[in-house]
Amino acid sequence: MSSQIRVAILGATGAVGTELLELLESRNFPIADLKLLASSRSAGRTLPFQGEQLPVEAVSENSFKGIDLVLASAGGSTSKAWAAKIVEAGAVMIDNSSAFRMDSQVPLVIPEVNPDAAATHQGIIANPNCTTILMAVAVWPLHQVQPVERIVAATYQSASGAGFQAMEELKTQTQAILKGETPPTQSFPYPLAFNLFPHNSKLNEEGYCEEELKMVNETRKIFNAPQLRVTATCVRVPVLRAHSEAINLEFTEPLPAAKAREVLANAPGVRLVEDWQANYFPMPMDATGKDEVLVGRIRQDLSHPCGLELWLCGDQIRKGAALNAIQIAELLVERNLIQPAKAMAAY
Q1: Please, how many CA atoms are within 13 Å of residue 239, restricted to the half-sphere of its CB?
Q2: What's the pLDDT at 124?
Q3: φ, ψ of residue 208 in degrees (nearest 5)
Q4: Which CATH fold would you assign to the domain 132-317?
Q5: What class has domain 5-128+321-334?
Q6: Would the N or C end of the chain have less CB density within 10 A of its end CB?
Q7: Which burial class, exposed, middle or buried, applies to 186 when counting CB atoms under 10 A from its CB (0-12, 13-18, 19+)?
Q8: Active-site residue list
Q9: What is the pLDDT of residues 70-79, one digit of tens each?
């Protein structure tokens, strides 16, 4: 990558924002200039980058002038508020929120799955939901060998999915319960320590929560398979960081577990973790801080001849959010889909 890109991180002080900053440095992304943006509450803070302390600025209408790439991770309302200004300034926005994921004009991209979709962008590219990314990275390689007809997913989602404050709350709750005290609840409606509960996002009339519907709709869009049958049950569990998922796949024809294991062992973004004698398979503590989606416990579904079971763990903040966004940015540079000062069509 030779072009030097002028980058802004919108939501730089959040859990994903700080991870974006670390990844830009560790992956040697070609940066000409870096601007850190957040709300007025965070303005004046500094964050480390390449041996320096960079100031955090309050986002404003002038924040995006001279910027080529905006990595946005400040929530859907913030992304919607600034999207037009970002694109008008000639920048490309890679948005980590749900604001534009199902917009037909906005590509929803996982580089290991549908990299060519990035070329269709009109100034905005959406980063999928964390649970969708982790599942798709594992399922897509199998789908290329034997088409998947149905996906049944159960997720076990860590506190990190709700940000830094939720992670700290889990620690505080754990300490409180061990002391016999009432655990405080702010990030979640119920105590998460020593507990679990269905994902607390809004329910629709059929009883599916927003998180579950994201997995359904986003997977169909990314796979370009609008009729793909997908269902999910999402659960919040008392794990600090890294999500887990139990996936049941129904194929058009039987796919032997040995073949699936061979495919996944060679799939991009996947690491096969299986020790059957030790009963050792992917765990959140092993996935934390790792780039790959850890996949294991691949076995035949005893209830269906075309069924396959697998278990996966992935770092929600990393591959489930920040890393996928950086990989999209790298893809744009490698394919000359973003260039310094190149004006984009207004969204």
Answers
A1: 22
A2: 98
A3: -90, 135
A4: Dihydrodipicolinate Reductase; domain 2 (3.30.360)
A5: alpha beta
A6: N
A7: exposed
A8: 130, 243
A9: 999 999 999 9
